[in-house]
Amino acid sequence: MSTERLVPTPQGDARLVTHRARHPAVTLLLSHGAGNGIDTRDLTALARALPRHGVTVVLLEQPWKVAGRKIATAPATLDEALVTASDQLRVRTPLVVGGRSAGARSAARCAKRLGAVGCLALAFPLHPPGRPEKTRLPELRAAGVPTLVVQGERDTMGTPEEFPDGIDLVVVPGGDHGLKVPARGPLTQDDAMEILVEATLEWLTREVTGGGSPGDGRGKARGNGPRG
Q: Considering the domain boundaries, does residue 225 fall inside one?
């Protein structure tokens, strides 16, 4: 079951769409990229699958998108809306923040401020296309909490090989920046989304719920910063 509501932020109204687990052990707050909304294949796959496993998924549609604009506003405004929306959730479970592309960058920048216990970065834009020298790796590392990166093999904003050792990274074979796979490739699009869902669940179990499955009610308490 999903519910939605508009929440006021300094940038205008944002939209929160909540896909609630029956017995939630984790809350996953996800926002979208700079050129799309919350209906992308990866966000939709997580919102459909994870609640059955004890993970409440909340999708944040940024104010610029709610207002019908075509182009995202500046990164600082995305962070401001994310923080304001998160404050209004008042979750009682451990909070994991994340998103795709620009949403992943915002989540990494804000994770510690939000007291999150994890960060899920989908298609993290490590650099602008063709500009590897303009690295955004410091943003990813600044999350200060366990972080999972799910990256397409053919992502022009950062292939898996461009990430340094020590990054917890899952590769979608053949995937592009939208995690779309070739029609004639070895994986179907459903296969690719299954990789995403299963990798996310495994990571949540390992890093957030302390070895128990997300749905078994043994989630770690929400903290105010990185775990030791």
A: no
Is residue 185 predicted with pLDDT exceeding 70? yes
Q: Are strands 118-122 and 147-152 parallel, antiparallel or unpaired?
A: parallel
Contacts (Cβ under 8 Å, ≥6 apart) of 19: 1, 2, 47, 48, 50, 51, 56, 57, 58, 59
Tell me the pairing of strands 118-122 and 95-100: parallel
Tokens of 60: 């944040």
Three-state secondary structure call for residue 161: helix
Contact 201, 53 (CB under 8 A): yes
State how many domains the chain has. 1
Instruction: Please give the residue range of the domain that contains residue 173.
Output: 2-216
Question: What's 92's domain CATH number?
Answer: 3.40.50.1820
Kindly report the pTM of this predicted structure. Answer: 0.92
Residue carrying structure tokens 């972080």: 147
Give every CB contact of residue 106 below 8 A, 6+ residues apart in sequence.
31, 75, 78, 79, 82, 99
